[in-house]
Please model this.
Amino acid sequence: MTDRIQQIREEAEQAITTATDTQTLENVRIHYLGRKAELPNLLRTVAELPASERAATGKAANEARKALEAAIEQRAQHLAAVELEQRLERDRVDITLPPDPRHDPGRLHLITETRRELEDVFIGLGFNVAEGPEVETVYYNFDALNHAPTHPSRLMTDTFYVAPADDIFDPNARLLRVHTSPVQVRAMEHQPPPLYIIMPGRTYRPDNDATHTPQFHQIEGLAVDTDITLADLQGTLLAFARAIFGEEREVRLRPHFFPFTEPSVEVDVSCFNCTGGLTAHGLRCPLCKGEGWIEILGAGMVDPNVFAYVREYGYDPEEIQGFAFGMGIERIAMLKHGVPDLRMLYDNDVRFLEQFG
Ligand code: DAH
Model:
């Protein structure tokens, strides 16, 4: 009887090692250890054997069953691991394939698109791009830009001061810059003339309505050299206006006041929605309100008082001149694309955003 047990055991062990998948292995288990299998049957009938054979047969059968159970368990684990590996191999995702259905890869926000477009225009004219901090000091934001102590934009109601600002006249008091103009001063401290730079960036003011958001964007321009005149400013801005709003555009300069330029001007571009304020149907143009001109930026000749703050860096007001300008990026984007409300740029409604970029 023990010979037969040994034979079953060897046969079963053979079948276990040659089973190459879990289903086959399960069949092997049923065949050798299942309820109707020979070995368990034998175990159940050990009691009926003659007393002399009982002990040896029982022991051999029991050992054989345990050994086979262990061998099957081991083989099952091995096959499960192999099969998992194969499944993962088959399921591998090719992330380089285009998605199905195809997804829009995304696009630039209108403000980013406009900023880059403006940068391209001025880079093409020979300007470099410079940047400065958004958390500024009173010195750079106001003092060194020739703002009188009484200038209204210094007030708490017009500027976000960074706590704790107990003294808003302290040159070191911190604020969120109200314009990109402080970068002019920082850039001049950094590099002697000639200097031709534009300075894009975020700016902050406590305003909120259809044409103002507390955070917005500006692009500042600064050219410093010998023999710079207002005509250079006008020519530069004409090239910019034509590149952005169309080749037929004209610009006009109106006298204005800014603390850091003298003389100062506001710059208008001829309306690109009408001729002389009248639409093709003879109606008053809604974009320029019948004016024929649209205000786009502030500019002027750099005030010698500003150069005096950076004289030690090579900016002697007797030797050099400069022009400067500053414009709102949102305003340019809105004019160019007919966006009726500035806040749409910040609502993040994809139906709006997907029309640009
Ligand atoms: N900083 C001004 C503002 O925020 C804009 C400006 C006007 C910038 C004239 C200039 C400039 O550089 O010359 O309204």
